[in-house]
Design brief:
By secondary structure, the chain is of the alpha+beta class. The strands form six sheets. It has a five-stranded antiparallel β-sheet, sandwiched between helices. It has a five-stranded antiparallel β-sheet with strand order 7-6-10-9-8. A five-stranded antiparallel β-sheet has the order 12-11-15-14-13. Helix 21 packs parallel to helix 22.
């Protein structure tokens, strides 16, 4: 608000003491005054126009000044104290209003506290006197309604225009809110500065390298661990040298930081670096932390993952080795990752399910594998396949314990499926073809059932004692033989308790404890054995002990009381028969021996007569003598056979082995046979180079002669007899064939007995029945065997073979081989 200065007074002359001169002077002065007034009126009009024009131009400026925040007090540039100045609009309200005096600047200054008010007056005085500008931040007294507030006071002189005086102006601006915000910001800054120092100390104490990059991605800060890693003396030296953990100053560490700043997200890369002189695997991360104008833009840190990388490599090697092992297993194995893809499948899995191994290497989904198996009708049919597949997929998040299931495939194979939660997530599924095992198990169970049923229905008693001396298995026969309660035996009693229960069945002498301990020791003795014992009740028991592979002992018992009774009766009867047979044989042998002496005399005297030592005999006498001699020799032959049989029965006949010329022996037998003068033909089939054999020539010749005599006896007139010999394998086979009536097969065994005869020819009758029995004995003494073959109405062939210890060509000895 301006004040207009008062108008200057204009003096006027009075009418007293004036003369005409004065009137002239007055007139002149009046004219001059009028001229001056006219001049001043012109100038005033011009000034008024200029003022009006200036006022018109100043109005927007004044309006803008009044609209500015805060308010002011202004003085025209003049001598201090001449003008009290003028306050701007709203100054009183800005400074708190109330009862204060805001008409003068002293009143305005009084709105502030005494100290700030004094500073304000002093600075204003300097401004008025010397145009010294100033800026103060002061607070008011706080006694008004607005409370205590903070003001920024700025004083300055503004120069006038067109050579006119300027104005000294003091601006007042309420900065209470910014001041409080600045104070809070300052407190935060102080706190952040404190925290920054603490953080730097904490980062220096950290064991991992940490660094910060500036706008140019050069190193701006690093901690102690970073300096140690790049082998610098201090973090400052590392920053100054532009050290980098990854590849040096020109390495890819800056590229990693550039990428992090470009995408606005952390970037991590792992690599091997040399840190602190050691080769370490570091996981380096760069992350943006500020905008384009920030002093710090990218922060990085490196974590030593050497142990983890080595563990990962070891794990990878172990997994590869594990995979190799799994690959060679016969069990089908497939591993699905947490995202249900095939991670590993061995050859056995692909072969069992008929899957393409190359397709499995493409990591198909679990659901795709199931769909493929379903499409090829390999997997068991499911009523609701989609529900089944959903349940399988649910196992990835719900399976805790292994799940086992038998899969019965359409092709009648049976797979055992075991699903396990994999430690790294996902599922591990194994498939085992148990078709053969189940078949074997069914067969085994059937066999066990059959064996159990068979065992339970045996007449024999069977019991198994375990290594601990307790019953593991028994059948009803065991309980019956030992008169034990089956219910008691099912409780698996100890052997000692069982022995005590059957004490009355044993025959023993001496103390029972000694006998019992002997039984216990015998039962637990793992030696296979069998035997027989008689019990106190008169029953006879056969037993057999068999050690089992699991350490148990199996005993079998059979009650042979009736059998033993029959055997005893038969043995007694047989003994009586044997005694009678011995008496018969002894009687026949004695009679034969007694007949031999007079027979030798008859033969001797007949030979004297036949040789005509005491005179010539006529034809009839010679014929009679020859008949007597022939009959006597046959009788002597029979007597010798009887004596030989008796000697064999007594075990006193020993072979006189030597080298036997087979061809010569056959000729001798044929010559003896021809002396019988029977009406049969005798043919000999014997190669001259057949060689020799080792044996008793006399006994072999006797055996052959008996066979020939037997054939002559049973061959009708004009029949044929063949005597043949040949080498066969490692022995020599002799055979005598006739064209007699033949022998029924059921009589073969009977005819090999003693004093058993067949049906002889009508002319020659039956023989004595010793021939075949004696031949059989001689052949067996040589280690051979006798064989009968006959066809009724066509004839009989009796053959025997004996080992030959020499060959015809070389005469070297060979081992005997049994004839087939």
């Amino acid at each position: 608000m301006g004040r207009v200065p008062a108008a200057l007074p204009i003096p006027f002359f009075g009418a007293e003491g004036a003369d005409i001169l004065n009137l002239q002077v007055l007139a002149a002065l009046l004219v001059a005054g009028l001229l001056v007034a006219a001049f001043l009126a012109v100038r005033f009009a011009r000034a008024r126009d200029r003022a009006r024009h200036a006022l018109t131009e100043a109005e927007p400026r004044v309006a803008a000044l009044d609209a500015a925040p805060g308010s002011y007090w202004s003085w025209p540039e003049s001598a201090p104290g001449e003008d009290p100045g003028t306050g701007g609009p709203g100054l009183a309200a800005l400074l708190g209003g109330g009862d204060g005096d805001f008409e003068t600047f002293d009143g305005v200054a009084g709105a502030f506290a005494p100290g700030p008010a004094g500073d304000l007056r002093a600075n204003v005085a300097a401004l008025r006197a010397t145009a010294a500008a100033f800026t103060l931040t002061i607070t008011n007294a706080g006694t008004n309604a607005g409370g205590k507030r903070t003001f920024q006071v700025h004083g300055a002189r503004s120069p006038g225009s067109d050579g006119k005086l300027g104005f000294d102006t003091v601006w007042f601006r309420d900065i209470s809110e910014p001041a409080r915000a600045a104070a809070a910001a300052w407190q935060r800054t102080e706190k952040l500065a404190s925290l920054s120092a603490e953080n730097r100390n904490a980062l220096d104490r950290m064991g991992i390298p940490v660094w910060v990059r500036g706008p140019g991605l050069d190193l701006a800060y690093c901690n102690r661990a970073f300096a140690d890693a790049v082998e610098e003396a201090s973090p400052a030296a590392a920053v100054k040298g532009g050290a980098e953990i990854a590849g040096g100053p020109s390495g890819w560490g800056r590229e990693l930081a550039e990428e992090a700043r470009r995408i606005g997200a952390p970037v991590t890369r792992g690599t091997y670096v040399v840190a602190g002189g050691d080769r370490r695997f570091m996981e380096i991360t760069e992350l943006p932390i500020g905008g384009a104008s920030s002093h710090w833009q990218v922060m990085g840190f490196a974590i030593d993952k050497t142990d983890a990388e080595e563990a990962r490599n070891d794990l990878s090697r172990h997994m590869m080795a594990h995979g190799e092992v799994l690959e060679h297993l016969g069990t089908g194995i497939v591993i699905f990752t947490a995202d249900t893809r095939v991670q590993f499948a061995n050859t056995a899995f692909a072969r069992m399910w008929g899957l393409d191994e190359e397709w499995l290497k493409t990591a198909p989904l679990h659901g795709e594998v199931l769909e493929d198996l379903r499409a090829r009708r390999v997997y068991p049919d499911q009523t609701d396949f989609q529900r089944f597949k959903h349940d399988v997929m649910a196992l990835y998040t719900s399976l805790i314990d292994p799940r086992e299931e038998l899969l019965h495939l359409p092709d009648e194979r049976v797979f055992r499926e075991v699903v396990n939660a994999h430690p790294f997530g996902g599922l591990l599924v194994t498939y085992e073809d148990v078709t053969d095992r189940l078949t074997l198990e069914r067969s085994y169970n059937t066999l066990i059932a059959v064996q159990s049923e068979t065992l339970d229905n045996l007449l024999e008693g069977v019991v198994v004692f375990g290594a601990d001396g307790r019953i593991r298995l028994f059948n009803p026969g065991y309980a019956r033989i030992w008169k034990l309660d089956a219910q008691t035996l099912r409780g698996q009693p100890r052997l000692a308790d069982i022995i005590e229960k059957v004490r009355d069945l044993f025959k023993f002498e001496g103390p029972w404890e000694t006998f019992r301990d002997k039984i216990l020791a015998g039962v637990m003795d793992r030696t296979p054995r069998m035997g027989r014992f008689e019990r106190a009740d008169g029953s006879v028991i056969d037993y057999a002990a068999v050690p089992l592979p699991d350490g148990a002992m199996m005993f079998g018992y059979i009650d042979v009381t009736d059998t033993v009774s029959v055997q005893r009766a038969l043995a007694e009867r047989n003994e009586a028969l044997l005694a009678a047979d011995r008496l018969k044989s002894q009687f026949i042998a004695n009679v034969s021996y007694e007949l031999r002496t007079p027979l030798n005399s008859i033969i001797g005297f007949t030979e004297i007569l036949s040789n005509q030592y005491f005179g010539t005999l006529n034809e009839r006498q010679g014929e009679y003598t020859e008949n007597i001699l022939q009959a006597s020799r046959v009788l002597l032959f029979l007597i010798d056979n009887i004596l030989d049989l008796a000697l064999i029965d007594a075990g006193g006949l020993e072979l006189e082995r030597g080298e036997v010329d087979i061809h010569a022996m056959m000729e001798s037998v044929a010559a003896l046979a021809r002396t019988q003068k029977q009406e049969v033909s005798l043919n000999i089939d014997c190669p001259e180079d057949i060689g020799a054999l080792s044996g008793d020539e006399r006994r072999l010749k006797q055996a052959l002669f008996n066979l020939v005599i037997n054939a002559i006896t049973h061959t009708p007139a004009h029949g044929h007899i063949s005597l043949a010999v040949r080498r066969q394998g490692g022995g020599v086979q002799f055979s005598v064939s006739d064209t007699g009536p033949g022998i029924p097969e059921e009589d073969f065994d009977r005819l090999l007995g003693r004093f058993e005869t067949g049906q002889g020819s009508a002319e020659r009758g039956k023989g004595l029945g010793l021939g075949l029995a004696l031949v059989k004995s001689f052949v067996e003494l040589h280690g051979g065997r006798l064989v009968l073959a006959s066809v009724l109405g066509e004839g009989t062939t009796v053959s025997f073979d004996v080992p030959a210890h020499r060959t015809a060509a070389t005469g070297q000895e060979t081992e005997a081989e049994p004839a087939p």
